[in-house]
Amino acid sequence: MKGLQILVVILALASVASHGQTPITYPLKEDVATIEGLMKASYEVVSGEAGQPRQWERDRSLHHPKAVYSFPVKGTNEQLTMTLKEFHGETDDLVTSSGFYEYEIDRRVQRFGNMAHVWSAYETRTEKDGPVVARGINSVQLYFDGQRWWIVSWVFDRERPDNPLPGKL
Q1: Fewer CB within 10 Å: C terminus or N terminus of the chain?
Q2: pLDDT given for residue 2 in this prediction
Q3: What residues are paired with 150 via a beta bridge?
Q4: Is the Cβ–Cβ distance between 53 and 121 less than 8 Å?
């Protein structure tokens, strides 16, 4: 039986090697070493073509295990708050049913000690280089544990006629 287990491991490793793929271990150092890297990765994980799975494993590696998301319920002043796992479940169909690309267009960072607050203005498109279909601001709270940055929470709001983006953050 032990010989069979060794053979299975060897075949699995050979399969990975023959395809030239190395399993990715998250978090990626470049994703969590700096605020810039963390914000770049945050936009990359949700963006992609229709039907393309989003990088939720990578996204989980960016967030503190108890991180929360909070966003407005469309057409109301109500704010909906949920865990990262709930957010992935609620938004997966939305971002994979059509193309979804979110790009940062402006940022302001305020830092004190091991915490940082990021105001990140964004644009959303349904095609990689298509027209802008939505804009808004993400308010992102971060914490540095001495080794890496963690996202603790997101609060965001969309631009509306009564809530335009400011000219400059």
Answers
A1: N
A2: 55
A3: 143
A4: no
Which pTM does this prediction carry?
0.84
Asked if the structure places residue 44 within a domain, the reply is yes
50 within domain boundaries? yes
CA distance 21 to 7: 20
Q: Which two tokens stand for residue 6?
A: 């060794």
The pair phi, psi for residue 4, each rounded to 5°, is -65, -40
- Tokens 């994979």 locate to 96
For residues 104 and 136, what is the distance between their CA atoms, to the nearest angstrom?
10
Number of domains in the chain: 1
pLDDT at residue 13 in the model = 47
Segments forming the whole domain that contains residue 63: 29-158
Is 1 inside any structural domain? no
The answer to whether the CB of 80 falls within 8 A of the CB of 100 is no
Which has the closest alpha carbon to 156: 57, 87, 70, 45?
70
